[in-house]
Amino acid sequence: ETGVTQSPTHLIKTRGQQVTLRCSSQSGHNTVSWYQQALGQGPQFIFQYYREEENGRGNFPPRFSGLQFPNYSSELNVNALELDDSALYLCASSRRDSQETQYFGPGTRLLVL
Amino acid sequence: DAKTTQPTSMDCAEGRAANLPCNHSTISGNEYVYWYRQIHSQGPQYIIHGLKNNETNEMASLIITEDRKSSTLILPHATLRDTAVYYCIVRVVVGGKLIFGQGTELSVKP
Q1: A–B: how many Cβ contacts below 8 A?
Q2: Is A108's Cβ below 8 Å from some Cβ in B?
Q3: In terms of CB atoms within 10 Å, which of B8, B25, B34, B103 comes out highest?
Q4: Is the CB of residue A75 less than 8 Å away from at least one CB of chain B?
Q5: Residue in chain A lying closest to B43 (CA)
Q6: Rounded to a whole number, what is the distance in Å from the CA of B85 to chain A's nearest CA?
Q7: Scanning every residue of chain B, which has its alpha carbon at the shortest distance from the alpha carbon of A57?
């Protein structure tokens, strides 16, 4: 167990809807990174939040957005859902220091119909 | 971030050592080698990381060649529960994102 939790565990949405996924960091961690993992692929980096600011972004459109709260928990929001957004969404927390190992939560499985 | 190359799949007998290779010939001096594994689409699990010295923890050992262009993850006594996809990742530490490739699918067989 990493101490990183995500909710919900599973979610079904229809095309065009909006979704919010949540992540609670491991105690003492101040950085959260989000990844998308399509079936059969490795996880792909979406973005990272540090001190409530976006701190790096992968090749994802603006309809993917996020927030980090003062307690370091985080949300991933996806607007105008598309069928290809069906994936496992993973968050990872870390502590900004010289090592900054990322520890992953169990993920949220999103299915877009 | 440097790119890594891993075999697509490997088999290992239960109780034997599993040696998973990784090539990272374009690694820079400030990049670390990280290993994660993922079991049945659970969240990736951190295993070990290193810069240039060999490292060992309760899960595995990491052997990095002197020129740092390749490394080997060693699971000393593989069990059936070690069956997973193993990812070798090279990253700059501070603020560095993890770039996952396809990984190596390790099957531990009785």
Answers
A1: 63
A2: no
A3: B103
A4: no
A5: A106
A6: 9
A7: B97
Q: Tens of pLDDT along B18-52?
A: 999 999 999 988 889 999 999 987 999 999 999 99
Using the Cβ of A4 and the Cβ atoms of chain B, whether some distance falls under 8 Å is answered with: yes
For A11-40, b where at least 16 C-beta lie within 10 A, e where not — what string?
A: eebeeeeebebbbbbbeebbbbbbbbbeee
Cα dihedral across residues A25, B46, A107, A92: positive or negative: positive
Task: List all residues of chain B from 16 to 75 with a beta carbon under 8 Å from chain A.
Answer: 34, 36, 41-46, 49
Residue B28's identity, in one-letter code, is: S
DSSP string, A11-36: EEE-TT--EEEEEEPPTT--EEEEEE
Encode chain A (113 residues) as per-residue pLDDT tens digits: 779 999 999 999 999 999 999 999 988 899 999 999 999 899 999 999 998 999 899 999 999 999 999 999 999 999 999 999 999 999 999 988 756 889 999 999 999 99
pLDDT at B92 (0 to 100): 78
Q: Tell me if chain B has a CB within 8 Å of the CB of A90.
A: yes
DSSP string over B54-84: -EE-SS-EEEE-TTSSEEEEEETT--GGG-E
